[in-house]
Amino acid sequence: METPKSKTELLPGTLDLLLLKTLSLEPMHGYGIALRIKQISRDVLNIEEGSLYPALQRLLLKGWVKAEWRQTENKRRARYYRLTAEGRRQLATRSENFDRLIGAIVRVMETV
């Protein structure tokens, strides 16, 4: 009997970091952001709409992203998000803190 993949939980604050990093590549609509994260993570990270859009709204309110309505390549109307200068600063700071945290966790896990 095949076991379904277990749900991967993100560390607190990681979703914002993933969104900022993904938007640093180019402006995208919500579905495109979720798809890019899923592809890059090789299907390990699946960001659901119930988490994605509230997080994007939070980033908008903080001024880390801006949004505008545009047409997609499929001629549908979608809200495209792009990183602001403050969002780029937050990405740099949060990436540095995240790298330090992950390094510390790896050191503890490798301890014999």
Structure, explained:
- With 112 residues, the chain is of the alpha+beta class.
- Helices cover 54% and strands 14% of the residues.
- It is built from four helices and three strands.
- A three-stranded antiparallel sheet has the order 1-3-2.
- The protein is globular and about 55 Å long.
Label this structure with key terms.
three-stranded antiparallel beta sheet, alpha+beta, 112 residues, globular
The strand order across the widest sheet is 1-3-2
Percent of residues in beta strands: 5-15%
pLDDT under 50 segments (min length 5)? none
The helix fraction, in percent, is 40-55%
CA gyration radius, whole angstroms? 16 Å
Structural category is alpha+beta
Structure summary, number of beta strands: 3
Please describe the biggest sheet, giving its number of strands, its sense, and whether it closes into a barrel.
3 strands, antiparallel
Quaternary class: single chain
